[in-house]
Amino acid sequence: MDKLRDKINHFTFHSGRNGSQGFNRVLIQLFGLLGHGKSSFINSCLYVWEDGGYHNWAQSAVTDEGCTMNRLTYPLTSNITLVDNRGYAKLGSYETGEIFAQLGNLLPLGNAVEWSKGFGLIERIVQAETKIKPSDFIVPVFVYSVKTGLHPPEDEEIKHLLLTAAKLTGIYPIVVLTYKTSGSLTKTMGAFRNIGAEKIFAFENYTQEDCIKTRGRHNEVLHFLSEVIEEVLFRIDHSRDPKQEMKERKQFVLNYVHDQEKKLQQDHLDRQRMLEKAVLMARFKRQQEMLDKQKEKEKKEMEHELQRKQEELERKKLAYRAIQEAELRAQTENNEKGKWWNRVFR
Questions:
Q1: Mean local confidence (pLDDT), 174-196
Q2: 43, 201, 321, 337 - which has most CB atoms within 10 Å?
């Protein structure tokens, strides 16, 4: 542990063969869902690093709802700073755009995070240009709770999130799994490997109620921080331009927000068309039902009229038959009378 501490504590950007290249601070950018333990993980890192008494530096909540509303910074050394970004509730387009603006370090540290709608986020990014530092080297760290588990279709959404974060920062996010004893750690780690995660660390965070120091937890935190340093050293061995990278991140996020806004507008138009189609279909259905009822009514009326005429015809037939029978009887009677008279007069 002493070697790990020494490595972390003495890290500088001048350690690279190309020198600092304009970088002077590593920002370990934590991001993820609400209540998955980002603030608690920061408390654990500071507790291990300070090696003193436990404090709730990051004001982690005891609930799973999350409480971080600002982009808060927690210096670990003069060259390494932890950043607690606001967690998101779901991967909606507005929240996702805000996540990438935070990860790209395009919004001022220490400020409140708002889920801007429309092109409000673009305006905030433009206004923040003079307040952000291109000299910060970004290392994205995705925090996820094991007790939540990772299942379809959320795994595809998170895969897209991590891939987009990698395109934005140039580094595939390191995955930190929290609450490792509160679910299936093996399955969760496997699920993250299946969506492309390479560096995965599992932790049981220190808390106010559970802050007894253990060698295992301390080693886990120090190994995580050491891996962050290794990642940075690997990256700065290549030629870098912090100002150009900041411009590229800004353009990436602006394009992303613009595309998402267009997609939202198109989705709104599609929903509007579907609603209009549903209204027309409902109207057509009502008209068809009314027409069917009218046809059924007319059919019944025709059947009733036909039945009435048939009954009238039957009555006329009966009456005609009765008249014929009466005439036949009269004729028969006349014939009998004629025969009688003939016999009499003969």
A1: 96
A2: 43
